[in-house]
Amino acid sequence: MSSSAPQETGRQRLWSVDEHLADVLAAIRPLEPIELQLLDAQGCVLVEDVTVPVALPPFDNSSMDGYAVRVADVQGASEEFPAVLTVIGDVAAGSGELPTVGPGQSARIMTGAPLPPGAEAVVPVEWTDGGTGGGAASGMTPASAAPEGAAGEVRVHRAAEARAHVRARGSDVQAGDLALAAGTVLGPPQIALLAAIGRGTVRVRPRPRVVVLSTGSELVQPGEPLAAGTIYDSNSFALAAAARDAGAIAYRVGAVSDDADTLRATIEDQLIRADLLVTTGGVSVGAYDVVKEALTSVGGSGGSGVSGGSGGSGEEDVQGGGVDFRKLAMQPGKPQGFGSIGPDHTPLLALPGNPVSSYVSFELFVRPAIRALMGLTDVNRPSVRAELKADKALGSPAGRRQFLRGKYDAGSGTVSPVGGSGSHLIAALAHADSLMVVPEDVTSVEPGAELEVILLG
């Protein structure tokens, strides 16, 4: 994103988006690594390279159900003139002691079973009569139903080249190869590889624990009846889901009333399970902006104001104990708070209460903080340049970086606005897959103009 120079609004400084994000990230330290069982490590970031202790697969094995044979014994075989081989036994997956295949012999072999000594290739069972003496087989007789099928004779109707249908030892990875590099996020395929090479545990940075609190006496939990003047609490659900999407373990705290003592006690109770605290609502200039009031003293137990090299102090910011409350040159999301609280200096981001303002603020500031706690270096959503597809020009306030909901079409390289610019229009947000970025020095964007587009999923 493009940077903008600091602005002044009366006595309070107006921060740029980039300054605020830099201030947040400067205060975030990755969580300390721990050793976790594989499934517990899903979604976590490796902190060390993992090398392969043994080749994978560890032995030559069959890729088909069929018969292990010598190439010379099936050379020239056809349906009219099949090669007739003596079957000396079964080789199943997990077999230990293996029969040796000599001239004129074969062994029934199952997918994944080790190639027995003397065998050079595998012929699929469909290329044989399956030992029945009839035509082409469609499958093998189960060993439990016909143990005698593991002996006798088999007619092979096609020739096979050396190593046909054989998975070579080490064809996946060799011993000593780098399996996964430090910094890798462990998803299902990575967990599978770790298990396949015998790793039961792995050293990772844990998923951050994020506590989300929404404030407001007007908020009612979904499923409960609405009284006059009340609305359903959507912010805590949206932000908890967004935190999970970013890779965190999210704890949602139901709406806290507009009472500073109650909010202060709730925050202090939540500190024990939080690597990051996120509040929504109560950060503007109203008489009931309880987050500011509550954090005036909750930070005093060990927190301190947090500001990076671009930060300010003194009368430039409204101090809230360990939290600075700021105004940003952006729309939506102008009022923001950031700092650390409690004896462990737990980071806290205070977001505005309007649903779209809250979500946009999360994407711009909280998501990068979560990714930084995980130890990732690429913390931002991907962005592209796209052509505006709209019926009319989009307006934007001077001196503000505006974030508008959009629908991105990768095929045409275009983006279309979804809904208006109001910070309460949550229905439009549900249909958007991107944010269109209008720079601070642009007040109108004509159809066909190129914009930065932040992709949301």
Topology:
Blueprint: E1 7-9, E2 12-15, H1 17-27, E3 34-37, E4 45-46, E5 50-51, E6 61-62, E7 66-69, H2 71-74, E8 83-91, E9 105-109, E10 121-124, E11 152-156, E12 166-167, E13 178-180, H3 188-196, E14 201-205, E15 209-215, E16 219-220, E17 231-232, H4 235-246, E18 249-256, H5 260-270, E19 276-280, H6 290-298, E20 318-320, E21 323-328, E22 330-331, E23 335-341, E24 346-351, H7 355-373, E25 383-388, E26 394-395, E27 401-409, E28 414-417, H8 426-430, E29 434-438, E30 444-445, E31 450-455
Parallel strand pairs: 2-21, 8-9, 15-18, 15-19, 16-17, 19-24, 22-27, 25-28
Antiparallel strand pairs: 1-2, 3-14, 4-14, 5-13, 6-12, 7-9, 7-10, 8-11, 20-21, 21-23, 23-24, 25-31, 26-30, 27-28, 27-29, 29-31
Helix pairs in contact: 1-7, 4-7, 5-6
The low-pLDDT segments are 1-6, 298-321
Tally of alpha and pi helices: 8
**Oligomeric state of this protein:** single chain
Residues in β-strands, percent: 25-35%
In whole angstroms, the N-to-C terminal distance is 18 Å
The overall strand count is 31
Structural class: alpha/beta
Shape field: elongated
Largest sheet: 9 strands, mixed
Q: What does the radius of gyration come to? A: 32 Å
Give the mean pLDDT.
87
- Helicity, as a percent range: 10-25%
Description:
- With 457 residues, the chain is α/β, with parallel strands linked by helices.
- The chain contains eight helices and 31 strands.
- The strands form eight sheets. Strands 1, 2, 15, 18, 19, 20, 21, 23 and 24 form a nine-stranded mixed beta sheet that branches.
- Strand 1 (7-9) and strand 2 (12-15) form a beta hairpin.
- Helix 1 (17-27) runs parallel beside helix 7 and helix 5 (260-270) crosses helix 6.
- The longest helix has 19 residues, at 355-373.
- The chain is elongated.
- Residues 1-6 and 298-321 have low confidence and may be disordered.
